[in-house]
Amino acid sequence: MTNKDSKQGTIKSDKKVIPRKYLLPFILVTSCFALWGFANDITNPLVKAFSRVLMMSNFQGSLVQFAFYGGYFAMAFPAAMFIKKFSYKSGLLVGLGLYATGALLFIPASMIQVFGLFLIAYFILTCGLSFLETTSNPYILSMGPEETSTQRLNFAQAFNPIGSLTGMFIAQQLILAKLHPATASERAAMASAKLKEVTTNDLAVIRTPYVFMAFILIAVLILVAITKMPGHGDKNKHLNLKPTLKRLFSNQRYLHGVIAQFFYVAAQIMCWTFIIHYGTEVFTSPEFGMSVAKAEVLSQKYNIVAMGIFTVSRFINTFLLKYFRPGKLLMNLAIGAITLTLGTIIIPGIVGLYCLVGISACMSLMFPTIYGIALKGLGEDAKIGAAGLIMAILGGSVMPPMQGAIIDLGQVGPLSGVRASFVLTLLCFIVITHYGFKTYHQYIELEHG
Fold this sequence. Notes:
22 helices; globular; two-stranded antiparallel ribbon; mainly alpha
């Protein structure tokens, strides 16, 4: 039974979000959300760390994100075809295996000390994440009534930031805090033997959490392998890509959802990656007078606070989805994000940093809600459609290097390069606001016939 108030954009459903028969599979699949959250958010602070340890520009350091999210783009469509041909369970196993392989490649990369090998490791790791996300999101959507699918996915996604918080904490306490405090310019002035010793120790610090995670992933892989999971597979294993793609490309809500997802992921990665740069600029200013190393560690604390806010907001907004249309809630939160991004750009110092942290409260709903709206009503086409939405994560690969290049300018008119660079984030939230507005009004039009 469903109670509606379309004029106010509210909805209340009495149907179960997670039917009892799907509870155990739901728990197992939801655990994967935390696993890829860990990878995402232990990696973001390392853009700044790699730049310092290997004496690179912000643009070069941001190539970590290019390789990381490039893996999502490259593997999403093959992953979708794989799970359509085989099963969701098979997709989970392949994803966990690739994730673990990429993490273990940090061992030779750190020993050889070649940045390109780290990029290869990140790429393989995120090919695994692409498999996991392409599999897990539509799998969760299928575990119950379609009316509660967006709420169910938001609930599962609420465990993603738990992994993210863990990754951020480890990045702060076990990586950033243990790196040698020398800046890139100070490292360049070191004797070659001393520089090699410092770099070797720093890269060993960076690799350790990834290797530890690889063993956890192997354990989870074994657990999934021995557990009976519901199939949700096609009886017809033929791919039939042409008619599927034709239907997807003719679905405007889906296509616009892919575009919105591209810009959302870009905004999320830019906010969480360059908060370190923003905070470092604030805390090394004459007002605070900290060293770069101390400023980076303190800035990561603000990143952790942002993720904590994101986590709490995700649960709150998942509850609100019982009463409000997804499109309306998405639109309002995107407007809030625009306001806070303007504060990040315009207001200097600690207040601007507070605005940047606050954006996370608005972002919490966006990924799963865009995902759920775009795939709603697609049926089995959702398996291939999911690939397009995961490929849209390419936004996290394309736009951070652009932001890094703006930061490298040092000054853009009256603004510092760091503050000016968040204009890219502002543009992203404008696109998302438009998608929320459009989908909300589509619901209204449909209900009024």
